Amino acid sequence: MGSCQAPTSGVFFSRAETAGMVVGGGGGERLGGVSKPDLVFGGSRLIDRVCCALSEVAGAGLVAVVPPGVSLPPGVMHTLEDPPGGGPLAGIDVGLSALGAPADAWVVVVSVDCPGIADVLRRLLAAPLGAEYDGRILRGGDPEPFDQYLMGVYRAGSLLRVIDEAGAQWGSVRGLGVRRVLRSLTLDRVDADAGVCRDVDTPEDLVWWETHLNL
Q1: How far apart are CA 31 and CA 156, in angstroms?
Q2: Nearest to 187 by CA among 149, 214, 157
């Protein structure tokens, strides 16, 4: 997938035992209904930018949970919840099924509107995780920091367990909030400034990232 701005040293996760998942989510309503994966920054679509960075650290498979009309880089699997629109937790569920990762594998989960993917990966993977943890997420945001569950790395078995438990309790994970379900996991939290965690929801976000990335 070409040259990527992703950590190539100081990563304490085995690439062979780490998979990646991009959750497409959202219809881009506040951006006029555009396809977020196809937004272009400096000549690169968001989906290409995120998948390229993930491919550097995730050698155990890479899946994108996005609409079928979104073209993907070579080697990236495609899936989508059926019917679409089930929310990011339902997306994670089908993404895990597509990956088929063993329970002890790590899965990096990020939303597609993550232009700062390189910084996100550096923070998530720059230190080992003890056996007592189910994963690690970033904590940051504006105006107050909050848990960023779609900027995390998780044990595949832990994700499957809590999603299956939620499905058994509620009958389906469609429409269930990611925070509601994943907060039961034992997670390490890494503080990050609001800029690193900023996604792309509004025209102002687009301008901010274009300026920040010097595009």
Answers
A1: 33
A2: 149
Backbone angles phi, psi at 130, to 5 degrees: -75, 165
Q: In b/e form, how buried is each residue of 37-69, taking b as 16+ CB within 10 angstroms?
A: bbbebeeebbbbbbbbbbbbbbebbbbbbbeee
Which residues are paired to 106 by β-bridges?
A: 18, 155
% of the chain beyond a pLDDT of 70? 91
**pLDDT of 34-90, one tens digit each?**
899 999 887 889 999 999 999 999 999 999 999 999 999 999 999 999 999 999 999
Alpha carbons 82 and 191: distance in angstroms, whole number:
35
Report yes or no: 58 and 48 within 8 Å, Cβ to Cβ.
no
| Global confidence as pTM | 0.94
Q: What is the pLDDT of residue 209?
A: 86
Alpha-carbon distance of 188 to 152, in angstroms, equals: 10
Whole-angstrom distance, CA of residue 207 vs CA of residue 215: 10
